């Protein structure tokens, strides 16, 4: 970064951060004690004495009381314009992390219905048969009985499935003649009438109705609140994987206000029209690097929790898979044919878009690899950074093949923490030990990232790092594939520098280097001095964006003079 013009700014910095343990994620200088910031950019990284010597009478000094500083965390695969509804007042959170039992889920739904006004639409998120034992797939009849006077819809925890009662079906004007969105469908009975079940995004989101599909009037406030939530978790940049075109102006407008706390790199949903109203790189016009639309998102297959990932091996035959409604020796299938993937590549890749492909099953991965191997030579894009997302059952051979094609992967390692025992005991047996195999990806020479796919799991980058290093489940009873662990350096890079690279932002974020934005997170402990199994419990004390605080914990020791 030494050639960046910002290094020629005035010698006296606006701010110096001192008395810190600085983990830079810069191989040239992995550790430091202090840094200086001018006009939001880092202008010096070094020892306490070196940086303090740069300060002038008007320089603000931030004393971090010996705490650990890292580059701000980067969520390569988030959904802030969806999660804002979960964290807002219009959707009731019934995720396993909030309602751990079936009884608490049903009680929460009944209490919400009882308190609602007649006709008020009700939306719930987080139904999970696997983790909330005793739940079954809700039927339209049961939902009608629960809420005879209210449109009521429930979104499954993966967001790939939803259910609505009769009034919810009516509210979204779903009929037997409604055309299914591309790559998903509304289930219909033998007479062709909607049953209230919607399979795959975006059909599942459509079923949720007005509480989930936020009105333009309320969207700015909800999105600003979501930025506050993300900043409190130490995030300074996030991907928005599945941006709806209607939310583009909301994101761009927020980006030029002081309510924007996190840099956003957006990927619009692929649709049947296969075109976008934006161009690659469109975003805020103020030059603050706060919002850019850089890619297109597609769903090659679905979710492991509802049985629709395309694998070369069957699900186990267990009470849990029976409860999911899966037949004996069930195997999922892809959402697209190879020809449809070719069409998507031709439509978007030729326009310069980066493609992000949701894929879990090894069969779906193989199909994508075959198509990209065929199509990539048609385009002169050596640095295309095509992304595979989640990659649950992707094999070591497939990681090697992907790396040769210039494809990068973002892995949902937090699955191991929350669902690891279920993956082994209920769904896939020994095959589950290879889930989200970050070691294989790195050994293939690939740059990877970790993510939480919020709102599927809470935004918790430190937990991701813990899980990648230990591969231990939440129960503590099992380690999935100990040979697939990564080291702490690799895990931190996957949550900072390499995640920023995937989001086409390595020139401005992801490490503490001269010329980059002063996007920082202050932690209560040094991950390198913490028991690996407790890294996820480290507290975020403060978050800074371009050197300005976006979050400060009540008990933070940070002092400013």
Question: Can I get a quick summary?
Answer:
The protein has 561 residues and is α/β, with parallel strands linked by helices.
| SS-derived structural category | alpha/beta
Radius of gyration equals 23 Å
- Please give the alpha-carbon distance between the first and last residues: 29 Å
- Placed side by side, the strands forming the largest sheet appear as 8-15-16-17-18-19-20-21
Which whole number gives the mean pLDDT? 94
Biggest sheet layout = 8 strands, parallel
Helix percentage range: 25-40%
Weakly predicted, low-confidence segments: 1-9
What is the approximate shape? globular
Provide a count of the helices: 18
Total strands: the figure is 25
Strand percentage: 15-25%
Structure description:
The model is unreliable at 1-9 (pLDDT under 50). It contains 18 helices and 25 strands. Strands 8-15-16-17-18-19-20-21 form an eight-stranded parallel sheet. The chain has a six-stranded mixed sheet with strand order 3-2-7-22-23-24, covered by helices on one side. It is α/β, with parallel strands linked by helices. It is globular, with a radius of gyration of 23 Å. The chain starts with 14 loop residues before the first strand and ends with a strand.
Set out the fold topology.
Elements: E1 15-18, E2 21-23, E3 31-32, E4 34-38, E5 41-46, H1 48-52, E6 60-63, E7 68-71, E8 73-78, H2 80-86, E9 91-93, H3 102-115, E10 122-127, H4 140-146, E11 152-156, E12 161-164, H5 166-171, E13 185-188, E14 194-199, H6 203-207, H7 209-212, H8 219-232, E15 235-243, H9 248-255, E16 263-269, E17 291-299, H10 319-323, H11 338-349, E18 354-359, H12 362-375, E19 387-390, H13 396-404, E20 408-411, H14 414-428, H15 438-443, E21 448-450, H16 461-470, H17 488-494, H18 497-502, E22 520-523, E23 540-545, E24 548-552, E25 559-560
